[in-house]
Amino acid sequence: MAPFTIDMTMIVGAAISFFVGAIPFGYLLVRFILKKDIKKEGSGNIGATNVARVAGKKLGIVTLVLDICKGLACVLTAFHLALPAGTAAVLGLFAFLGHCFTPWLKFNGGKGVATGLGVMLLLVPTAAISGLAAFLVVYLLQKKVSLGSLAGAVTAVVVTWSSQMDLLTQICVSLLVLILIFRHKSNISRLMQRKELSI
């Protein structure tokens, strides 16, 4: 397997992807439509789940779709430019990082589930579908988005490492999942205490 190289295309692409991912759609939608600060409402998270709790399911769905599209757009651009799969994975990872650590909100963004899904749908479709199936099964049984998200993320990384993807893609997906799990540390604590909210 040939070693991957870091070139200017990857560096510029990663920087652009980070700022695309950093667009805080949930925050902006609630701010402009309801004149509220989503970070001071509900769980304080800017993602679709909290938007749905605070502003209703319709706005939550819009947030979900837009956050997914951030990940999709960055990976799709890499494929459109015929960049190597590993480079597409790096761009997807940086879109995910932008969402989680957006500079527009003092580097405190969302948990990355929707943007991560957008990345995975194009990068490793079988892993994305398997992860989504795991999410749905766990969510339907427990009615907890966080638990379903964690189950989906773990499933996705296992499927990715079981596939024939290049090493850089496998590493990027693993980092994405590890960060996603870390971003859910408060949810994990509430799950262990049986205090996690259902939706």
Describe the 3D structure.
By secondary structure, the protein is mainly α. It has one domain (8-192). It has 10 helices and no strands. α1 (8-21) runs parallel beside α5 and α5 (85-100) packs antiparallel against α6. The longest helix has 24 residues, at 57-80. The chain is globular and about 45 Å long.
Question: Mean of residue pLDDT?
Answer: 93
Q: What is the helix/strand order?
A: HHHHHHHHHH
SSE class: mainly alpha
Roughly how many Å is the radius of gyration?
16 Å
Please give the count of helices.
10
Strand fraction equals under 5%
What is the compact description of this entry?
The protein is built from ten helices and no strands.
